[in-house]
Design brief:
elongated, 720 residues, 43% helix, five-stranded mixed beta sheet, five-stranded antiparallel beta sheet, alpha+beta, 23 strands, single chain
């Protein structure tokens, strides 16, 4: 016969190493700093702050049990607990085991809920707070039985609803006269807890959702084998294309809002320029920001030093970095533009899109989708799954985050209509791996799923260009010069006067494009295309901008046009020669002003040759969120196994206990000890007390023989 468990500390002493490790992993705040024994560990676990944090991590079946234990008498039997939630002991056993492992419940035949949860849950399961004037259980049952004969439908409706009741008519009067509802101090009507339990037949919950609901949706089908994988790969490289638009921040940087973030008008402009939906562009930019690839100097958004290292990596590695930043991030891009609780519009790249715990909930949804690979899960069914796993999160937040996952995941190529793609399947596995292993897995997955890049182009006399496959890196500049006609197994582009003028206006060089086409085309460049490019370049006044002081060189007529243009007044140009002018403004500003004046500027190096499209950046990069402390709570600073070994060593007496740890040990054992309290004159008053709780450097205790509690700062306490 096993010994009776008398306290939470006794319960922890029965834990094996594996179970103690599971406790520390689930509640890492208990190990910061490491407790000097199981008694102090139990006292911390029973602390109000830690208990509230643990409550937020409970799933729906576990929350049902906690609510029932908060209502039932302390020391209730498991069978009575099962009946209170309309279930069976075997059904609630897994949830009860997890509550025991989390140190929220202790006991075997008699179950005890830790005090902060028993006292802190004032309205469990919709019941009113217990009050001294509530009728006894027998009196409540008699009232319900008497009222059921005259108003059975009303009582059935009230039984499983909230305790608060609204109404002032005849029915409300009858309910008040029958003792079913009472008037509170604030004048509102509510059902006393004992009466409400009688209405529910002694149960706390009408049903017990022991298992997570399964996602539902139409079956995944493919008209052409492999088409879903091809679409996922295409979307992944489309995200990289959109990420490449960040290089345009050098010449035309978006502004920064006063409260931080990217203005909505700039976001719409960037999306229009990229030819992509706003949510897709927002997802890519948000992920780039979380990866530290873009930042701001207080006035404008620019690429960072990390961007310079990122852009020279292979495409597969760049996508991996982007998607991992999204999966591990604490922000939602899909809510950009919507108002928050105060009515303020949420701006991209700001703290207004940050959401505590969203990383954990996003990971849960991704793992859930991996359990149902054959269906396109609907948003409603996924929201039900998420609400089951996080029952304390408001319903509107659940719906918002579910919709955001489907939108953002599709923008990065990991989701397709509520189902994981071949890339999404690998992402779920990478969530539980170290960074190096996750990088290798995702990079390999995209490389295996993507076809070999094609470095050649087929040109036609009707000004179309066809890339027969996935374009190689060197062919991506074609997207700046031509409009996309179709995507799929091949990329079809069409050159036009408008598209060529757009590229020239953005500072692109037509001669460099002709050199590229001569090298990549299987056939000679059509004469019509050559004429189009050179004629349009000739019509555009070419302004060369150097990084000296800033020097501008052009034909004298072009500089005359620039000098008289109203937009160029801010440059304060000084003509050194008919074809040379200088300004004190930086090259980026000169490029922007020249473009606004209707000219076609081009950045050149000190040697007069055209500069590359990428510039070096000095803005600091790095992750947006610190690595050690996250919004999901503190993390274990030492491995769980090592932490357990140290706690057991302290328990065996290998370590002297501090005053704080001795107080925590007394709290865990619910024992008394002599306590010395330093008074204001330096004297010490000794009392025999029972410590009750220790939080925030304050000890709450009760002196022997006294009913009133007192609070004292720990640094004023001594122990004999």
């Amino acid at each position: 016969m096993s010994a009776v468990i008398r306290s939470l500390a006794d319960s922890l002493r029965r834990f094996g190493d594996d179970r103690l490790e599971a406790l520390l992993v689930a509640r890492p705040d208990l190990a910061s700093p490491l407790p000097k024994g199981l008694g102090p560990l139990a006292a911390r676990a029973a602390g109000a702050t830690s208990a509230r944090r643990a409550l937020g991590a409970l799933r729906l079946p576990e929350l049902h049990l906690v609510e029932a234990l908060a209502v039932l008498e302390d020391g209730t039997a498991p069978s009575a607990l099962a009946a209170a939630v309309s279930s069976q002991p075997a059904t609630i056993s897994p949830a009860l085991e997890r509550l025991t492992t989390l140190a929220l419940v202790w006991g075997e035949d008699e179950l005890h809920l830790i005090r902060p949860l028993r006292e802190g849950l004032r309205t469990p399961a919709g019941l009113a707070p217990a009050a001294a004037e509530d009728p006894s259980a027998e009196t409540a049952a008699q009232r319900v039985a008497a009222a059921r004969t005259s108003m059975p439908e009303v009582l059935e409706t009230l039984a499983w609803g909230p305790a608060a009741v609204e109404g002032h008519g005849r029915l409300a009067t009858e309910l008040r006269e029958a003792g079913i509802v009472v008037t509170g101090d604030d004048g509102t009507l509510h059902i006393p807890r004992s009466v409400h339990l009688a209405l529910r037949g002694g149960r706390v919950r009408r049903s017990h959702a022991a298992r997570r609901p399964a996602p539902e949706g139409p079956e995944v089908t493919e008209r052409i084998a492999g088409s879903r994988s091809a679409q996922a790969v295409e979307q992944a490289f489309e995200a990289l294309r959109l990420l490449g638009t960040v290089r345009g921040f050098d010449e035309d940087p978006p502004g920064v809002l006063r409260r931080g973030g990217l203005p909505q008008r700039d976001l719409r402009r960037l999306a229009e320029r990229a030819g992509a939906p706003v949510p897709t562009v927002a997802t890519v930019l948000q992920s780039a920001w979380q990866a530290g690839l873009i930042g701001h100097d207080g006035q404008e958004w620019h690429p960072t030093r990390d961007w310079d290292a990122h852009r020279v990596q292979a495409p597969e590695q760049r996508w991996t970095e982007l998607v991992l930043a999204w999966a591990h991030g604490h922000h939602l891009a899909a809510v950009v533009g919507t108002p928050d609780s105060s009515g303020t519009g949420r701006a991209l790249l700001s703290d207004l899109t940050r959401r505590d715990g969203v990383r954990t909930r996003r990971g849960f949804l991704l793992r859930t989708l991996r359990t149902c690979p054959g269906i396109h899960a609907t948003a409603d069914s996924l929201a039900l799954c998420l609400a089951w796993a996080f029952p304390l999160v408001p319903a509107e937040v659940i719906e918002e985050e579910t919709a955001a996952l489907l939108t953002e995941g599709e923008a990065l190529g990991v989701l397709d209509g509520g189902a994981l793609t071949v890339l999404g399947q690998e992402l779920v596995l990478a969530l539980d791996e170290e960074v190096t292993e996750a990088d290798a897995r995702l990079t390999g997955a995209l490389r295996a799923a993507a076809p070999e890049p094609v470095g050649e182009v087929l040109l036609d006399a009707d000004l179309t260009a066809v890339v027969p496959g996935r374009p190689a890196e060197r062919l991506l500049p074609l997207l700046d010069w031509a409009d996309v006609v179709s995507r799929g197994g091949a990329l079809t582009l069409r050159f036009s006067t408008t598209s060529v003028r757009r590229a020239l206006g953005a500072g692109r060089d037509a001669e460099a494009l002709l050199v590229l086409l001569e090298d990549a085309s299987r056939s000679p460049i059509p004469q019509a295309l050559t004429y189009l490019l050179r004629d349009e370049q000739r019509r555009h006044g070419r302004v060369q901008v150097s990084r000296a002081t800033t020097v501008l060189t052009a034909e004298s007529e072009v500089l005359d046009l620039l000098q008289v243009a109203p937009e160029a007044s801010a440059l304060t140009l000084h003509r050194l020669a008919p074809t040379v002018a200088v300004t004190l403004s930086d090259p980026g500003f000169a490029l922007q002003v020249s473009r606004q004046a209707g000219l076609s500027p081009q950045a050149v190096g000190p040697d007069g040759r055209p500069a590359g499209p990428e510039l070096a950046h000095s803005l600091p990069g790095g992750p947006v969120d610190p690595d050690l402390v996250t919004v999901d709570g503190p993390e274990l600073r030492v491995p769980a196994a090592e932490a357990v070994a140290r706690i057991r060593a302290a328990e065996d007496g290998a370590t002297d206990l501090s005053v704080t740890d001795r107080l925590l040990d007394a709290i865990a054992h619910e024992g008394e000890l002599p306590l010395g309290i330093v008074d204001g004159r330096g004297g010490v008053v000794v009392k025999q007390v029972r410590p009750l709780s220790l939080e925030g450097g304050r000890l709450r205790a009760r002196e022997r023989g006294q009913d009133e509690e007192f609070t004292v700062l720990v640094h004023r306490v001594t122990l004999g």
